[in-house]
């Protein structure tokens, strides 16, 4: 009988292991090997070809994604449980002083805060990359005849070269002077936002009495539309009366835009209402209210006699642009305030405000920590998250000829 040398200290393993996945760790590669080495008694020698021979698959088995790192997570969880039990036992054995109790209370609060942030991180992990199907502002009917289709890349390449500067046709309303003391506001020298009761008019084009006498962007994510009405050889671009066209969006172009629905304070609509409310009050608070105003040649065309309340500081400039080929464009522009330049000249300004809502979900930049020391980083983050809103404000300021 053939004899295979062995030692009593050798460990008995499996009868057969076809995958080899058991011994992935090199330190355990020789766990079940013999101390004397293997003999040649049972070695296989090829003598003749067998046509029935089949190769056994020895490829390494890949674990699913949901199983990878499970051992590490379980190990960390067990370590935390043991440390927690050890801490409880120590607290039961010793009497803490008043200051020690305060420090322990703060430490537990930090632990609970960290655990809450980790739970939110893992809860939101499955939502990253999900594409939400948003409702269109206008449903395309199958009976409509398609005249032309234009995609966003083609739309972004369009330009109107040779457009001259617009000419003022009418200037209406009155505006207050800007209070330069607000240029010195910082996180340490802060001023609370006040609630200012004033009337803002957002009138569509065809309801504008001055227009009677006489947009588009590829960055937008939310659906919107405008109404085009043709009267003889004139085209009027209007907004719908029941639309939310004038609401200011928040983080519309961010990698993870607001997705909560319902009555949550972080729902897209509630955030837009908050941003609009902030801009209305901020644009009036930074002005020298109650002092001398700068008035234009015509009064505010939207003020009615039966209207009660103070009208907001706003001026309207109706400007005409020549687009060529006998096409003219009249735009109603707005100014929020006026100030004096370095040489004493009048400068019309447009006052807008960006607001912080949740630094954990809006780029991770805390304004109170970064705004005074790293304003460029805050602005770059807002340019990325609100590119559509900032583009609208920029176009409005350029058309009106005002400073931002």
From TrEMBL:
Gene Ontology CC terms, in alphabetical order: eukaryotic translation initiation factor 3 complex
Entries under InterPro entries matching the protein: eIF3d (IPR007783)
Keywords, in A-Z order: Cytoplasm, Initiation factor, Protein biosynthesis, RNA-binding
Gene Ontology molecular function terms on file: RNA binding; translation initiation factor activity
Keyword Acetylation recorded: no
Superkingdom: Eukaryota
Name the record gives this protein: Eukaryotic translation initiation factor 3 subunit p66
Species name: Ornithodoros erraticus
